[in-house]
Amino acid sequence: MAEELNEIPQLDEFVIATVRKIMPYGAFCTLDEYNNREAFIHISEVASRWVKNIHEVLKNGQKVVARVHRLTPEKNQIDLSLRRVSEADKKLKMEDYQKDKRAAKLFELCAKKMKVEHDAALATVGAELLKNHADLYSALEDISFNGEAAFKEAKVSPEWRKMLTAVAQQNIVRPEVVIAGTLLVRSYAPDAIDHIREALLSAKGAEKAGAEISLRYLGAPRYQLLVKAGEYKAAEKVLEKVIDEVSVKMKGIGTVEFQREAT
Q1: CATH topology of domain 12-84
Q2: What is the distance between the alpha carbons of residues 223 and 130, in angstroms, rounded to a whole number?
């Protein structure tokens, strides 16, 4: 996790913070990923709108996704912002945080079953897994989906490989993220139907390994668009490419609009 790599977060990093003490001028927090190090959110950074009473937005014990917007090492001070965090940033950060927590518990379970101290297991087996993976969760996910191939050249004993594989495959299943919405494609050209058909066919070219695109006619000019992928980032990238592909084809002869369904 983050605290094992750095003692303090980096500027502009997204962090998980727990609100500990609320004052009229701001809130004191602890950083969950950095050994509960203290940080501060000024009332001006609580929300994009003007806040008269900070208790309208925050409460003690609340976990928030914040952005590090100022570091003052000589004063041992970390200032956070909530208003500089988008909804997409919140979702992605919280997903990563939950994955880190889950991976830690699963690895601890493996260590317990192997009758090895958790810290010792992290320093040996964990370190080997991290040589080819960004974090423990991605390592366990790789093991769950790809079995023996996930270990690559890692120096992990057959007993540990068997245990990690059993626990990973039992607890981590391949995820599926679906982004749904309505694609509105309009054309004022005489051969509009041909142009729209060609534009929609080009959208299928945005598919890539691990992603799937589905288009269904709802009645002119509306088409249901579904993008399925293994993770949110990948689904968003494919969606963006689909809209770009259709927009390029319709440039100068029509318009393209995407209306996302609420999730």
Answers
A1: OB fold (Dihydrolipoamide Acetyltransferase, E2P) (2.40.50)
A2: 44
φ, ψ for residue 218 (rounded to 5)? -110, -10
pTM over 0.90, yes/no: no
Q: Where in the sequence of the chain do the CATH 2.40.50.140 domains occur?
A: 12-84
Q: Provide CATH code, domain 88-171.
A: 1.10.150.190
% the chain with pLDDT above 90? 62
pLDDT in tens, 83-127: 999 998 999 999 999 999 999 999 999 999 999 999 999 999 999
How many other C-beta atoms lie within 10 A of the C-beta of residue 96? 17
Start and end residues for every CATH 1.10.150.190 domain found in the chain: 88-171
Spatial CA neighbour of 68 closest among 98, 91, 37: 37
39-83: per-residue pLDDT in tens?
A: 999 999 999 888 889 999 999 999 999 999 999 988 889 999 999
Among the listed residues 122, 76, 94, the one whose alpha carbon sits nearest the alpha carbon of residue 32: 94
Give the Cα separation of 71 and 9 in Å (integer).
9
For 177-260, the fitting CATH number among 3.90.180.10, 3.40.50.720, 3.30.70.1130, 3.40.50.10860 is 3.30.70.1130
User: Which two tokens mark 248?
Assistant: 């390029």
Neighbours of 256 (CB within 10 A): 22
Q: Which residues contact 232 (CB under 8 A, 6 or more apart)?
A: 91, 92, 95, 177
> d(Cα 204, Cα 213) in Å, to the nearest integer?
7
**Between these two residues, 147 and 230, which has the higher pLDDT value?**
147
